[in-house]
Request: fold
Amino acid sequence: MSTVGKSRAVILLSGGLDSCVCLAEAALSHDPCVLHLNYGQRTEARELRAFHDIADHYGIDRRLVVDVSHLAQIGGSSLVDATQPVEQGLPDGGCVPSTYVPFRNANILAVGTSWAEVCGASALFIGAVEEDGSGYPDCTEAFYAAFEAAIDAGTRPETRIRIHTPLISLNKTAIVERGRDLGAPLHLTWSCYVAEDAACGVCESCLLRLRGFAGAGETDPITYK
Amino acid sequence: MSTVGKSRAVILLSGGLDSCVCLAEAALSHDPCVLHLNYGQRTEARELRAFHDIADHYGIDRRLVVDVSHLAQIGGSSLVDATQPVEQGLPDGGCVPSTYVPFRNANILAVGTSWAEVCGASALFIGAVEEDGSGYPDCTEAFYAAFEAAIDAGTRPETRIRIHTPLISLNKTAIVERGRDLGAPLHLTWSCYVAEDAACGVCESCLLRLRGFAGAGETDPITYK
Reply:
């Protein structure tokens, strides 16, 4: 990956399918710095391994892992509260799922912006997807536009950071196809919300992922139970 | 303090003079929940004591202390980096001081919004001050308006959280006068950026505070070295 003459970008890299394809997109035009956030999710250790595996694949040295587990402390979400069950099956569309961490992406973008301003990055990439009926209010184009305006107002006058959401209008099939076409290391990614050894195949995240691979006519290279 | 019939508000309470007066303002109209953030500042332990002392004074049970020390990890600021000296004297106006933690208030507001959405609060109070020449880009009315728009876009459709900045256009003298008139426990507050036993009296924060009390014709009730 050549970074000569490219401006720096911070890429939010959870280690999942979407963030991996987002990094592959970012690397086309920018010199990537990758940021991983632990917000107390069940499968944090497995996701962190995926983060480092993917960064190794791309030869990225500038990595930052940040603990934002106060989101678990604040609670209100089954994803960060071990006493609440994770919903199985696909979202029914329209309503906000119980895995929603209130205003999570704003917390994540705020951290990313702080790091971007310190390291002189001009872009912040996040693999958010508005489609698939996931219903997260902080995964919409309207939210990202509003947050970018807040960045412009709340950072140094000379700082200009654009938020890039290259996957925002894609569905999982299109994301798998784009990742394949860009040569993204999809075999290194992790999406399951429940398990860390082999993916469960039945949680919402696994079902969306499997549907994406099936739609693209591809076999998911990771192991399922 | 009567909370009967009042809607809930989250108040950011660092333990300093400004946040204490902000709480006194908020308590007039809302049922307060107080939020303290440790972002790795030098005087964290002393500020936390001030937070609890002030909350005790008002009889507030709903308190949340959250660690956001990843801002220290990201660095770029003398306030969170022990190897950089804290500037002495008053800011010279215009430029951004070295104590600026990049996009700090956005991180703080994101945490406050997450908690507000979980606990059903309709307001978020922050004692930010645009005046005094402090020069923080994330302390401006323009920034708060932009962030409020991001909250509207990024939270549940039924959530409506307004950001209140009752001190935004006041100088330190007016803040001391307002605190006195509201009976705010200014003797319990802590402002010094450097010391924890007795205030240093020479850092920027001490000088602004002392200037405020002098302007109001009041004696600062805390102990100085």
User: Anything to note?
Assistant: Chain B is about 40% helix and 10% strand. Confidence is low (pLDDT under 50) at residues 77-87, 90-99 of chain B. The beta strands of chain B are 7-12, 30-38, 63-67, 123-125, 162-164. Helices of chain B lie at 17-29, 44-58, 70-74, 104-119, 141-154, 172-182, 204-215.
